[in-house]
Amino acid sequence: MDGRLMTVPGMGRLAETRRPKVAVLGGSLIGLTAALVLRDVGCDVDVYERSRAPLEGRGVGIVLHPMTVRYLLDHSLLDLGTVSTSAAWHRYLDRDGAVLSEDRRRHHFTGYNTLYGSLLAAFGRERYHLDHEATGIAQDDDRIELTFADGTSASCDLLVAADGVSSFARRAVLPTVEQRYGGYVAWRGVVDERELTPATSAALDDSLTYHVGAGTHALTYPIPNYHGVVDTGRRLMNLVWYRNVPEGEPLADLLTDRAGRRRDVSLPPGAVRDEYLKELREIALSDLPPPVAEVATRSATPFVQVILDVEVPHMAFGRVCLVGDAAFTVRPHAAAATAKGAADVWALAAALVRHDGDVEAALGDWEPPQLELGRALLRRNRDLGEGAQFRGDWVCGDPALTFGLHRPGDSADMHLS
Ligand SMILES: Cc1cc2nc3c(=O)[nH]c(=O)nc-3n(C[C@H](O)[C@H](O)[C@H](O)COP(=O)(O)OP(=O)(O)OC[C@H]3O[C@@H](n4cnc5c(N)ncnc54)[C@H](O)[C@@H]3O)c2cc1C
Fold this sequence. Notes:
30% of the residues lie in helices and 26% in strands. By secondary structure, it is an alpha/beta fold. α10 (337-354) packs antiparallel against α11.
């Protein structure tokens, strides 16, 4: 399957003479999805990724949404039933671990590596250029010239910037747009299910488990283990725990790693200083329901992601477009950021086909609905986060709190084939 050309069902294909040369910046989930969908409608696509090695180190869970995996499902490239875990219940626990509410709503989860590996295998390695950090973008009426940190360059008709939350391309085209700190961070961790006590395993069984406390909330759900194993009892229990941290010195200090280096948007596994790990474990025991606290305290290398909002006034700039987190970075409460990025790139391919490969006309047509989608998701996630962390008005079991892209719940009960 490596590098094989597919067709996109129902979308058509550009004529031989109207096939733009496309550079995709960033080779993560959205960059790869863009590369595949655009190649399949007939574009001539290269991906440029800053990382020197394939992105295989992120053992984090992704809540599945039909849009996130549309490419893989359309082409039967992955049997999601065998590479995903699921939870049939949404369960809210109080501080003592008693069940406050329980609703039947199934969500599926997989690992970042599973999706990334499948998308990369489908695109192939020939035109996936690692160790290519873009450092310059120049645009005239007809072409874009990209330059890279090693002094090499590439030209294209369309630049699709999928270079994430700290996007270089966004800084180039929108220098005044800033990341806005949400006032809290997500602590993330995983524990091998085999290390959990029977009582905790039973309490978290088949469930997306929430706890909402004063100024905090936490959730757990099962994800495949690092080898992709999805059998109950051998998976990883994934924790996301949102904790308020004032901006300024407290946040700066938390984000200073063991080597004394100040990080910006995350502290990877192994980088958090011991005093913060100790504090995390102590507060877990005092503030979280016992089963959730057990996941927090047994997690070997908890790590931190700063909760940020990025809102852009435009996504299209001549022959450059921003997609995924490079455009809108949204808080993770609706678990739909990857789905939003995928929606951006599917819509882009459709617009290019509609406009017969005319890049600027296609981007003009594409931009308004994607801006609306990004704004709506950003607003909903911000409201969810503010409600849990600051207003204290989350109502346990409220369906409005369910994961989803266009509306709460549109990623629940999905069919995996
Ligand atoms: C706590 C938390 C939980 C989450 N849970 C979910 C979830 O359950 N479901 C979900 O859908 N989403 C979730 N997300 C969001 C999800 O992780 C992101 O939306 C998604 O990874 C964004 O993908 P992306 O490809 O746009 O950007 P990224 O994955 O950030 O990739 C950007 C890529 O660009 C590369 N790059 C950067 N700069 C350059 C440059 N100058 N030149 C070349 N390459 C460059 C980087 O190396 C990187 O590989 C969560 C996020 C957080 C913080």
